[in-house]
Design a protein that fits this description.
The structure is a single chain. This protein is mainly alpha-helical. The protein has helices spanning about 15-25, 45-60, 80-90, 100-110, 130-135, 165-175, 175-180, 200-205, 220-230, and strands spanning about 5-10, 30-40, 70-75, 115, 155. It contains nine helices and five strands. The termini are far apart. The relative contact order is 0.14.
C-alpha cells in the first residue's frame, strides 16, 4: 500500500475528479475521502449524487483501498469573506472564471483545508485565460505570488498534466474505463439528457469527451431553458 494515509478529493461525478478517485483507489491503492459541495443554484446536484452512488457501487467491488463515505457541505453555509471576493473580482474583471472558485475558496478557508485535491486538467484546445493569471507556468502547479492566485492556495492539483482524452486512455489501460464512462458533467440537464448548452457541455464537445452521454435535441433544450427562465418550469 502507498504510505499516504488518505487522499481528500473534491468529487463531482465528472470525468476529471472520477478519474482521480479511481486512480487513487485502483492504481495507487490509497484510501480516498471524497468531498462534495452542494450548490443550490445548480440543477444537476441530484444527478451528480446519483452518478457517484452508482460509481461507488462498482468501485467497492474492485478496490482494496477504502472509499470513505462522501462528506457533503452546502456552499450557502459559508459566506464569502471580503478578501476572497476581492481576489475573485480581480480575475473576473480581466477574464471569465467560474463562480464556483469563489465559494469553494470560502468553504476551504472556513474549514482550514490545505492540499485538498482539485482536479483541474490540461485543456487540449488551449489553456483557459484565468489559469495564466493564477499559475506561474501552466501546467506547473506552482501558484503566482499574487492576490489572484491566493484564491487557490487551499488546493493541490494532481491532474494538470493530463487531458481528458489521456485520462480516458489511462482508464482503459488500467481497467476502469467503464466507471469513467458513467460520469456526468451537464449543469442544466433536460430530464435524463445533457442540455448541450451549458459550459461543461460545450467544453466536453470541444474536447471530444462526450462518448456515452446523450444530449437533448437543440430545439427541446432551447424550449426547456426558455420555460425555466420564464418561471413556467421549475429548476428542481
Amino acid at each position: 500500500m502507498n504510505g499516504e494515509k488518505v487522499r481528500r478529493v473534491l468529487w463531482t461525478g465528472g470525468l476529471d475528479s472520477t478519474f482521480r478517485v479511481c486512480w487513487s483507489l485502483l492504481v495507487d491503492r490509497v484510501d480516498v475521502q471524497p468531498i462534495y459541495v452542494i450548490d443550490p443554484e445548480r440543477r444537476s446536484t441530484q444527478r451528480e449524487l446519483e452518478t457517484m452512488s452508482k460509481m461507488r457501487g462498482l468501485l467497492e467491488t474492485r478496490v482494496t483501498a477504502k472509499l470513505l463515505p462522501t462528506v457533503i457541505y452546502n456552499r450557502a453555509d459559508f459566506p464569502v469573506p471580503s478578501h476572497i471576493q476581492r481576489a475573485f473580482e480581480k480575475i473576473r474583471r480581466k477574464v471569465h472564471i467560474g463562480s464556483q472558485y469563489q465559494w469553494l475558496a470560502a468553504l476551504a478557508e472556513a474549514l482550514g483545508w490545505k492540499d485538498v485535491e482539485m482536479c483541474l486538467h490540461l485543456e487540449a484546445a488551449g489553456t483557459a485565460p484565468w489559469k495564466d493569471l493564477v499559475f506561474a507556468e501552466w501546467p506547473s502547479p506552482e501558484l503566482r505570488d499574487s492576490e489572484e492566485a491566493q484564491l487557490f492556495r487551499y488546493w493541490s492539483f494532481p491532474l494538470l498534466h493530463l487531458t481528458k482524452t489521456e485520462m480516458l486512455e489511462e482508464a482503459r489501460s488500467h481497467g476502469f474505463e467503464d466507471i469513467l464512462r458513467m460520469r456526468w458533467f451537464c449543469h442544466r440537464p433536460v430530464g435524463a439528457l445533457a442540455c448541450g448548452r451549458c459550459t461543461p457541455c460545450r467544453q466536453a464537445r470541444q474536447e471530444q469527451s462526450t462518448l456515452g452521454v446523450k444530449f437533448a435535441p437543440a430545439p427541446i433544450s432551447w424550449l426547456h431553458r426558455t420555460l425555466e427562465r420564464s418561471g413556467l418550469l421549475t429548476s428542481s
